[in-house]
Each structure stands twice: as structure tokens, then as C-alpha cells.
Amino acid sequence: MTAMEYRTIPEADVQTALDLHYLVFLEKAPEDDTRESHRDVLLHCDRVGAYEGDDLVGLLAAHPLDLSVPGGTLPAAGVTFVSVAPTHRRRGVLSGMIAELFRRCADRGVPLASLWVSEAAIYGRFGFDPATHSYTVTIDATHPLDLRITPDERPLRLLPFASAAPVITPRHEAARRDRAGRVARDDWWWRTQVLPETFEEDDEMSEPRVVVLGDPGEPPAGYVVYRTKTDDEGRGTAHVEELEAESPEVAAALWRYTASIDLADKVRAWGRPLDDPLLRFAGDRDQVDVTREFPGLWLRLVDVPAALTGRTWSAPVDLVLEVTDAGVPRNASRYRLTAKPDAGGAHRAEVTRTDDAPDLTLDVRELAACYLGGTDPAELVRAGLVEEHRPGAAALLGQASRTELLPHTTDEF
Ligand SMILES: CC(=O)SCCNC(=O)CCNC(=O)[C@H](O)C(C)(C)COP(=O)(O)OP(=O)(O)OC[C@H]1O[C@@H](n2cnc3c(N)ncnc32)[C@H](O)[C@@H]1OP(=O)(O)O
């Protein structure tokens, strides 16, 4: 049997990689422009190939991301296009590609890896766990949106989607500073991932509509990106992809706008943060309905000390964490995590390896769940997933991990 080799997929093999991807995802080879946009994505990514001789039997691509974490940002691999030939399933090809990815992350000083799953059962074994969560929210738009606060009455403006990115980038950046789990966007990302003319999953969806709120000449105080679609019975829906606002009043005005679009009797926002102010200032929660909760970004701490020192903490902490990690053995260690306030009032951590008795024992997967502040370690103790050796240690870690706003990810890749 020919040995499997994990190496970079050269540009010359990218079309072969796409054919493998379409085969694996049971898709007919797409139209030329979709294929071209997939090729463009792969060319922007780091590409791990599993080769049996000259035959490509596995593909894993990784975006070079800059991910917001509490108090800053860290480089992260954004894993996508994972595909193993049906003839080579369950022979360790994915495991080999992930191991190669983690080696590359270590070589390049990338402490985090992240992804959106196709099936929840696949990635936990590799140390990933959901670090952000979202709600899908539906608004009954057959009547005006009932609000408990007074919306900002500054004017709304529709921007051409192709030139909207520079206008809304500052507001997106501000939102990214407020919440961990968000990806930095350059021109390419805005154009191909956020504001492409056609919506790949549904070609009946309109091009993106971008509406900003604010006085002319001022940077927008908020914006909404949505697409519209009308069903066979002529009922329209506004699909909100993103809505960011500097204040609840601005958010209220933008939600009121989306619920007032003529011929659309429903607003559907697929991925809202769990602490979205809309859910509080809506006057009628029968009109604004949470229809689904789902895990968003799955995270993996590839370099535990770099990840723990790369975020700020919201309270002083001095704990010994015993971390297990079957996938990246150099991570498996006892760490003393000490966070003290710095001159600016943020708590920066020092992380040292130690032989001291642990306060908590947890797998790197559980650390990923808690890392951005979205999961309370005490909840994982109660679930039997984290072992607490000193009573109260999980609560202390929880207090220090917490962030003012819940982590949230808007970019699915
Ligand atoms: C981020 C993304 O791109 S998500 C998209 C993921 N891709 C897909 O779903 C496409 C269709 N599926 C595939 O291409 C493949 O089946 C993959 C990538 C899911 C798995 O690849 P394989 O090479 O078969 O995985 P590999 O042999 O390394 O399996 C490792 C372990 O994961 C388990 N596993 C693999 N796939 C699955 C699954 N779908 N559900 C549950 N367990 C799984 C294996 O049983 C194995 O477990 P073990 O270590 O206890 O024996």
C-alpha cells in the first residue's frame, strides 16, 4: 500500500482539489463562476493535501484569520473545505490532515484553529468545541415592529453593495472590538464572503442590500445587510445577514426598518448573539421569536500558553490548570494562570508550567469552550467534564473569563 503523504496542494492541483470537494459533498460540478469563486477561496487559503502517490485523496484548507479575543486579536487558522475521498474514509486521512495543520500552526506561531462544522460529531475528538453560539430570530413583519424604546430618527440611506464596505468597515471594526469570536475583514473578505452579488446557497435570493443610519457626511451609527426573496405564493422575506449599531436606539431603528419593507411579511435573521438587545427592547416577544439556537465557531487551542496570555481577563486569578491534550502533546501540562491588573485596568495573564497540585483538571476541548467567555467552567464541572479539586476554582476561572458582551461570530466560512 502506498504511504499517505501530507503536503501543500500546489496551484496546479487546485482544480483537482475542487473536483474532490464536489464529489465528497455530493454536488454536481457547479457553473463556471461558482467554481471560479471556490478556486479563488482555495488560492487564498493554506492548503493541506493528503496524497497517495500522485493521487489527491484528502483536502483541508485554512484561511489565515485574525480573530477577536477578549481584549485583543490573535491569529487563527479558519479550517474549511474538509473533504476525504469516499474510497478512503475512516483510514485516518482527516486525522493526518489535522495533525499537519497543527504542525503548521505551531511553526507559524498561530495559537488557535477554528471552524464551522458540517456534523457536530466530527471535531470534538480533535480538541475543538463551540466557543460562540447564535440564535435564529424571526420577526412577524405583517404589522409595525413593537418597540419599548424610542428609535434613533436620523436618516437611513441605501448604499450600492459593491462600494459599501469602506463605509461600514469602521462600525464593523467597533463591533469586533466589543465581541470576541469575530474575524477581521479585508477588501477580499468583504467582497467574496460578505457582499457577493449572488448568494451561493440560494440563487433566488436578491443581491445584498446595505442600509446605513446616520447624518450625511458622518460615519454611520449603524448598518444592516440583508437580502430578499419571494416565495411561490408571493410572500416576501427579508433575510438579515448582519446588523450592527452603536446604541440600542440605532439598532431599534434598523430593526424597525427591516420589519417595514413593503411586500415582505417576515424578517429572518439567521445568526444573532444570544444577548442581542432586540430580544429585550422588542415590545411583543410573540412578534420577535427565537426559532433556533446553534453553535457557531468551534475553536481549538493549538498553543495553550500563547492563547491564555493572548487574551485579557476580567478579574484577578491565580489557578493551576491541569490540561490534557491527546492531539497536541506539548500542550498537556499543568499551568499556573496568574492574572493581575495592568496600568490600564485590564488583567493580563502570566502562564508558567508547574508541578503544583491542580485546582482544575480539564481537556483542551473544554478549555476551548470557555476560552472566549461564552461557557462557564462551573457548568462543565456540573456536567462531569471538568474536575474541580479546590471548591470554587471553576467559579473563579468563570469570573475571570467572562466578557461584558457574549462572544459571537458573524462570518461562516
Ligand atoms: C470544517 C469543514 O470543512 S466541515 C466539512 C467536513 N467534511 C464533510 O463532512 C465531507 C464528507 N465527509 C468526509 O469527507 C469525511 O468522512 C470526513 C472528513 C468527515 C472524515 O474523514 P476520515 O478520513 O474518514 O476521518 P478519519 O479516518 O481521520 O477519522 C478520525 C475519527 O473520526 C471519526 N469520524 C470521522 N468522520 C465522522 C463522522 N462523520 N461522524 C462521526 N465520527 C466521524 C472516525 O470514526 C475516527 O474515529 P476513531 O479515531 O475513533 O476511529
UniProtKB/TrEMBL annotation:
<dbReference type="InterPro" id="IPR016181">
    <property type="entry name" value="Acyl_CoA_acyltransferase"/>
</dbReference>
<protein>
    <submittedName>
        <fullName>Acetyltransferase</fullName>
    </submittedName>
</protein>
<feature type="binding site">
    <location>
        <begin position="118"/>
        <end position="119"/>
    </location>
    <ligand>
        <name>acetyl-CoA</name>
    </ligand>
</feature>
<dbReference type="InterPro" id="IPR000182">
    <property type="entry name" value="GNAT_dom"/>
</dbReference>
<dbReference type="Pfam" id="PF17668">
    <property type="entry name" value="Acetyltransf_17"/>
</dbReference>
<feature type="active site" description="Proton acceptor; via carboxylate">
    <location>
        <position position="413"/>
    </location>
</feature>
<feature type="binding site">
    <location>
        <begin position="90"/>
        <end position="95"/>
    </location>
    <ligand>
        <name>acetyl-CoA</name>
    </ligand>
</feature>
<keyword id="KW-0012">Acyltransferase</keyword>
<dbReference type="Pfam" id="PF13527">
    <property type="entry name" value="Acetyltransf_9"/>
</dbReference>
<dbReference type="InterPro" id="IPR025559">
    <property type="entry name" value="Eis_dom"/>
</dbReference>
<feature type="active site" description="Proton donor">
    <location>
        <position position="123"/>
    </location>
</feature>
<dbReference type="InterPro" id="IPR022902">
    <property type="entry name" value="NAcTrfase_Eis"/>
</dbReference>
<dbReference type="GO" id="GO:0034069">
    <property type="term" value="F:aminoglycoside N-acetyltransferase activity"/>
</dbReference>
<dbReference type="GO" id="GO:0030649">
    <property type="term" value="P:aminoglycoside antibiotic catabolic process"/>
</dbReference>
<dbReference type="Pfam" id="PF13530">
    <property type="entry name" value="SCP2_2"/>
</dbReference>
<feature type="domain" description="N-acetyltransferase">
    <location>
        <begin position="4"/>
        <end position="152"/>
    </location>
</feature>
<dbReference type="InterPro" id="IPR036527">
    <property type="entry name" value="SCP2_sterol-bd_dom_sf"/>
</dbReference>
<dbReference type="InterPro" id="IPR051554">
    <property type="entry name" value="Acetyltransferase_Eis"/>
</dbReference>
<comment type="subunit">
    <text>Homohexamer; trimer of dimers.</text>
</comment>
<feature type="binding site">
    <location>
        <begin position="82"/>
        <end position="84"/>
    </location>
    <ligand>
        <name>acetyl-CoA</name>
    </ligand>
</feature>
<keyword id="KW-0808">Transferase</keyword>
<dbReference type="InterPro" id="IPR041380">
    <property type="entry name" value="Acetyltransf_17"/>
</dbReference>
<comment type="similarity">
    <text>Belongs to the acetyltransferase Eis family.</text>
</comment>
